[in-house]
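Chain and conformation:
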Amino acid sequence: MTDISKVTDYLYVGSRVGKEDADELKELNFNLIISMIGQMPPDEIYTLPPFKTLWIKTYDTFFIPISIKKLLVGVEAALPIIQNKGRVLVFCMQGKRRSIAMAAAILISMGHSSQQAINLLTTARKVADPRRWYIRKQIKAFERYWQKKELL
């Protein structure tokens, strides 16, 4: 069984999914899968229908923080899916930081504050670690960016 946590009706977060998880993911009927693992592409099966997968190459290190631009790529892919009542899965190696940062950005784009997003994520996924300083910093930076964008 895959390690996936439901955050909302439209957003799920998990640890790395492999080809052995494909049948289960088909049943869960995700409309978009976002991989945040920089060091390895998603398994080939996730590049074929019925899957729609976005690979955003990121690394879990304070030396190379996840850029606002990369968070925006994921948000811009997820929003139309969510607005059409679809479901999005975001994963990274452990489902603790990179996927959580992206999920927080998606929640912020849906109208949540960064603190509300962090609370939702840590409640839904016990291993979530959005309070790690370099992850929290990027979540807060995305919130500021999104608020300015909304004012334009």
About this structure: Residues 4-151 form a domain with the Protein-Tyrosine Phosphatase; Chain A fold (CATH 3.90.190.10). The chain has one domain: 4-151. The CA atoms of residues 32 and 88 lie 5 Å apart.
